[in-house]
C-alpha cells in the first residue's frame, strides 16, 4: 500500500511539473499548427469532400451504367425449359413433341449477361449536377472562410495571452510596491508615527494585490489552454508569447464589404444551387430518353457460353402524372430559392452594418488609447509625489494606497485598451480583407 501511495505521489508531482511547464511561442507557430491540426478546419475539409462526393455521383448523367451477372437455374417449368433450350440453341425436332412440351424433363440453364444503360436526354439530371457543383464550390469557399476565421481567432487569442502577461507584470510590480509600503508602514508604526489601523490598511492592500495577481496568472493559463485547443494540442502547457503587447497598425483605410469575400461568394453559389434544383424539378415534367443494350451467353454447363446473342434499343419515357408530388416539389424548391436570395441580401446588409459598427469602435478605441496613456502618466506622477510625502510623514496612508491602486488600474486599463484597439483592427481586416 505504501508503494502504491509513493507511486501515486510521484505521478501527481510529474503532472504538476508538466502543468507548470512554460513554453515560448511565436504567433506564426500558432498559425502554422492551427492550419495543420485544428479540428474545425479538418471538419470543414471533410464537409467539402462530402459535397465533392455528391457531385461525383452526378457523373451518372453522362456515364453508362454497366452490370454483369451469371445466373444458374434448374427447372421443369414448360415455358422456362423450352426457353432455356431455345437460348442455348439446342432445340431439336423431338422437343416439339406435345408430350415433352407439356411435361419436360429437368432442364439446366446458365446465363452470363452484360447490360449497359446510357442516358441520352435527362434534363433534370443535368440541372441536379449543376446544383451539386455549386454546392461543392460553396463548401470549398466555406472552408477558405473557416481558415480565415481561425487565423483571426489566433490573432485575438495570442493578444489575449499577451494581455494576460501584461496584467501579471503590472500586478507583480504593484505587489513589490505594496510590500515596500508595508515595510515603511511597519517602520513608521515602530517609531510611533503611524497607528495600527494604517498598518492594517497596508496589509489589506498587499492581500488584495496578491489575489489579483493570482487571478492574472489564472488568465495566463486560460489563454494558454485556449491556444492549445485551437492547435488541437492535448498537453495544455503554459505558453509565453515571444513578443509583448504593443500598439499595432493595420491598413484600415477605405474598407468595404466585398462580394468576393469567401463566405459571401459561398452564399451566392448556394443560391445558384437552389436555382438549379428548382429548374431540375421543372424539367422533371419532360420526357427522358435512355439507350440500353445487353450481350448474353447461354449454356447448360457452369461458366460456359456456347450460345450467345445481343439486344440494343432505346426507351423514351414520360411520367405524365405522379399525383401532385412533382408540383409540390417544384413549389418547394422555388420557395427555397426565393428564401436563399433574401438571405443573401440580408447577409450582405448585416455585414455592412457590422463593418460600420466596427469602424466606430476603432475610432473610439483610438481615442481611449490616447486618454488612458495620459492617465497612466498622470497617475504615475501622482504616486511618486505621494510616496515621497509619505516617507516624510506628510501624506496619509489611505491617500498613498489610493494613488498606488489608481496607478495599477490605469496601467491595466491602458493595456486593455491596446488589446481592444488591436483586436478591432484585426476584426475590421477580417470583415473587409
Description:
This protein has 433 residues and is an alpha+beta fold. The chain has two domains: 19-63 and 123-284 and 322-431, Outer membrane efflux proteins (OEP); 64-121 and 288-318, Outer membrane efflux proteins (OEP) (Single Sheet), CATH 2.20.200. It is 67% helix and 13% strand. Strand 5 (288-299) and strand 6 form a beta hairpin. It has a four-stranded antiparallel beta sheet with strand order 2-3-5-6. A two-stranded parallel ribbon has the order 1-4. Residues 6-19 have low confidence and may be disordered. Helix 6 packs antiparallel against helix 8 and helix 6 packs antiparallel against helix 10. The protein is built from ten helices and six strands; from the N terminus they run H-E-H-H-E-H-H-E-H-H-E-H-E-E-H-H. The chain has helices at 2-19, 27-37, 39-57, 78-88, 98-102, 123-190, 196-230, 262-283, 325-391, 397-431, and strands at 22-25, 65-75, 107-121, 238-241, 288-299, 307-317.
